Structure formats: structure tokens, C-alpha cells
Amino acid sequence: MNHAGMDHGDMDHGDHGGMEDMCSMSMLFTWDTTNLCIVFRQWHIRSTPGLIFSLAAVVLLAMGYEALRALSRRFEASVDRRMSALPRDEQDAEITPLLAPGSSHPDIGKQGHLIKAVFYGVQTFYAFMLMLVFMTYNGWVMLAVSLGAFLGYLFFGHCTSATKDNACH
Questions:
Q1: Residue 13 to residue 16: CA distance in whole angstroms
Q2: Which DSSP category does 41 fall into?
Q3: Which of 2, 69, 145, 150 is most exposed by smallest CB count within 10 Å?
Q4: Residue 138 burial class via C-beta count within 10 angstroms: exposed 0-12, middle 13-18, buried 19 and up
Q5: SS3 label, residue 34
Q6: pLDDT digits (tens, 9 = 90+) for 62-82
Q7: Radius of gyration of the chain from its Cα atoms, rounded to whole angstroms
Q8: Reduced to 3 states, what is the DSSP secondary structure of residue 138?
Q9: Whole-structure pTM value
Q10: Domain boundaries, the chain
Q11: How far apart are CA 122 and CA 69, in angstroms?
């Protein structure tokens, strides 16, 4: 049967619809960066400079997670100090910018817990996003996440035990 006269619509069989530039998703460890996408289709690495920039961004993202954890710990310590200082003399208590001065013990506890819950939610989201970045199974990206965690701990983990429970968050 001769198919030469048949209308195939707008189908272009010559370039396979641009499939050679699609994101690749490996389910096995690899060092290959061809068509690597990190979490989003828009974060598509197509060149060596793009790879270097992306790896630097991943390092900074991982460092940011450690900075957020440090900020959360400082806030929690500040609330604890303020709560323990209230029964003695409210005038001597440290003033936390996120808590109104002159607040009562229950008010500080409720406000502090609400803000700590926000910190916890943001940290959990951030940790899972970093986990997705790590799960590209690309060795370069995995090293960048680990380097970012190392540098983040080095710069921001002064009062944190290095034996942290390494769950996703």
C-alpha cells in the first residue's frame, strides 16, 4: 500500500519532536549530566557553565538550610530565655523582636510556639526539596548537596551537635 498521498497532519517525524533536549531522569547513580534537570523542567542543564552555576546554586541552597536551622535554634533559645526570665522580673527579660515587650508568660508561650511551628514547617519543606535535589542520583549534584551541608554546618552550626539525626528533616 502506498502511503505517499496520505495526510499525516502536522506530525514531524524528522526530529522526534525535540526529544533529544528533554530532561533525563535516572533512577541509578550516574555522573552523566546530559539533559540533567534538577527538580523542575525549567532547571535544565545544557552546558558546562550551566552545570557549574547549578552546582554552586545547590551548594548555596544546602548552606541556606543550615542557616535556617541556626536561625530557628537562636529564636527558640531566645524564647526559652524570655520565658524563664518572666517569673523573676519582666523588666530584665531579653526583648525578642518577634514578641511584643511586656507580654505575659502564656502570650509569649503561644506566640513563640506559633513562630516555632512556622520555622518547623519551612524547614521540613526545605529539607524535602533538598532530598529531591539529591535524588537526581547525579554524583555531581549529590556532592554539591553534601558540600553545602558541610559548609553550612561549618559556618552556622556552632551550637549544634554533629551527631544530628539524619532523617529527611
A1: 5
A2: T
A3: 2
A4: buried
A5: coil
A6: 999 999 999 999 998 888 888
A7: 25
A8: strand
A9: 0.72
A10: 36-86+107-162
A11: 10
